[in-house]
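Thread: zinc ion complex, take 2
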Amino acid sequence: MKTMTCRQLGGPCDLAHRGETHDDVINAQDQHLKAAERDGDAARQPARDEMKARWRHPRRSLGWYREMKQAFADLPED
Ligand SMILES: [Zn+2]
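Output below.
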C-alpha cells in the first residue's frame, strides 16, 4: 500500500488516500472531490471541475494521468 495526498493529486487539501495502485488513489480522489461538491465545498470546487474535465477529455488528460502514475510509482511503500 502507498499513500498519496489530495494535494499530490492536484487538489487543495492534505487528505491522504491509500491504495495498491495509482488507479486506487485516483478513484479515491475522485470520490473525495465528488463528496466535496455534494457538500457545497467551494474550496474544492476548482479541483472537482478539473477532475470532471479530465474524464470528459481523457486524451488531453493523459499527461496528468501519466504524471500521477509516475508519482505513485516513485512513492515508498507504507
Ligand atoms: Zn482534498
